């Protein structure tokens, strides 16, 4: 049976550390760091994520400002709001919650955020610094995965890491961070041939595809470490029957509540083959929010 890589406890340690530093700076007369969160429209999942982020701000002593314009907000007005927040000396970090409504260009909006306030680490300047291995604001989710691996003493040097997914916010920066730590990295995506065969070569498998239960137990090399970034809400009982064969509790939740959250990896099957696995929920997710608080603190520091 694999070890459970529990993100919650480690996330709490990061939050405690941020709270201590914020309090220390406050007692030296500094104002608290301030995070501006922009949520356009009323996407229910985004509302849940924003609530979690605002709650973490309150827990750590970070001031949060919420902007909730309607879904119809024109792109120009969104960019004008970002410009105002860029110019506001009281705001240290700006987060535009994704996805944006269909008529808005997310890339244009994200590129508008001043790099020094880009606490999500999505701006090309910060992505470029990461590519060069230089300090900057780094994307929270892959940073969270790296923290998780470090906290559990996973020695990355020389490992073959397979990253499923090549998005700018998870897959690509994850691959760069692993490379920086001397792993040998393969990036896979929707056009990759023989995905199961490739995954079976991985000492470390990171799944960030957004496909519930894509990775089966038989795809995992015995003893591998598995990090599941995917967060999927499923309602289909037939899909549940297929992917929760080794997880009777998830199946029961799906039956009783009509929906359940799961990752991209079949967790129950992975636990039988791997040496360590992250759960969903409770794995990478809490660490991502803690990483956002750490980035906001970093953005507020002089220099
Ligand atoms: P994304 O932008 O949709 O990218 C998904 C990637 O997966 C793409 O590169 C895509 O390939 C690849 N892919 C899709 N289907 C595939 C398949 N059948 N086989 C192989 N590759 C496939 O997603 P994302 O933003 O990176 O997010 C990925 C997942 O992580 C989602 O479930 C998301 O909710 C979750 N997430 C979690 C957190 C957290 O805090 N835990 C944070 C961010 C995201 P192509 O490039 O070829 O299309």
Features:
303 residues; single chain; six-stranded parallel sheet; alpha/beta; three-stranded parallel sheet; globular; binds NADP nicotinamide-adenine-dinucleotide phosphate
Characterize this entry briefly:
This protein is α/β, with parallel strands linked by helices. The chain has helices spanning 7-27, 44-60, 75-87, 106-112, 124-131, 140-151, 171-180, 195-199, 237-243, 248-257, 267-273, 284-300; strands spanning 3-4, 34-38, 63-67, 93-96, 160-164, 184-188, 204-207, 225-228, 232-234, 260-262, 276-277.
What does this structure look like?
This protein has 303 residues and is α/β, with parallel strands linked by helices. 44% of the residues lie in helices and 14% in strands. The protein is built from 12 helices and 11 strands. The strands form 3 sheets. Strands 1-11-8-7-5-6 form a 6-stranded parallel sheet, sandwiched between helices. It has a 3-stranded parallel sheet with strand order 3-2-4, sandwiched between helices. A two-stranded antiparallel sheet has the order 9-10. Helix 7 links the parallel strand 5 and strand 6. Helix 2 crosses helix 12 and helix 6 crosses helix 7. The longest helix is centred in the first third of the chain and has 21 residues. The radius of gyration is 20 Å and the shape is globular. The N and C termini lie far apart (47 Å). Bound molecules: NADP nicotinamide-adenine-dinucleotide phosphate. NADP nicotinamide-adenine-dinucleotide phosphate (NAP) binds next to helix 12.
């Amino acid at each position: 049976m694999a070890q459970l890589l529990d993100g919650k406890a480690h996330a709490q340690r990061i939050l405690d550390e941020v709270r201590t530093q914020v309090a220390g700076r406050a007692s030296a007369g500094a104002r608290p760091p301030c995070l501006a969160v922009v949520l356009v429209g009323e996407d229910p999942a985004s509302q849940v994520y924003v609530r979690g982020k605002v709650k973490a701000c309150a827990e750590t002593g970070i001031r949060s400002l919420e902007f909730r314009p309607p879904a119809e907000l024109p792109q120009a007005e969104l960019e004008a709001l970002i410009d105002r927040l860029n110019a506001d000396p009281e705001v240290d970090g700006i987060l535009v919650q994704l996805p944006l409504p269909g008529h808005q260009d997310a890339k244009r909006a994200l590129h508008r955020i001043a790099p020094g306030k880009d606490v999500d680490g999505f701006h090309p300047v910060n992505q470029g610094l990461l590519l060069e291995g230089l300090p900057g604001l780094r994307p929270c989710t892959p940073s969270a995965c790296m923290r998780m691996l470090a906290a559990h003493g996973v020695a990355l040097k020389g490992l073959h890491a397979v990253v499923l997914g090549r998005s700018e916010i998870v897959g690509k920066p994850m691959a760069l961070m692993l490379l920086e730590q001397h792993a040998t990295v393969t990036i896979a995506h929707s056009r990759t041939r023989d995905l199961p065969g490739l995954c079976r070569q991985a000492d470390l498998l990171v799944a960030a595809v957004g496909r519930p239960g894509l990775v089966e137990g038989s795809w995992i090399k015995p003893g591998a470490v598995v990090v599941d970034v995917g967060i999927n809400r499923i309602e289909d009982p037939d899909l549940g029957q297929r992917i929760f064969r080794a997880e009777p509790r998830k199946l029961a939740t799906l039956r009783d509540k009509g929906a359940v959250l799961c990752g991209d990896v079949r967790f129950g099957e992975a636990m039988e083959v791997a040496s360590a696995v992250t759960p969903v929920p409770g794995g990478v997710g809490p660490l991502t929010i803690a990483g956002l608080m750490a980035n906001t603190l970093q953005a507020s520091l002089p220099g």
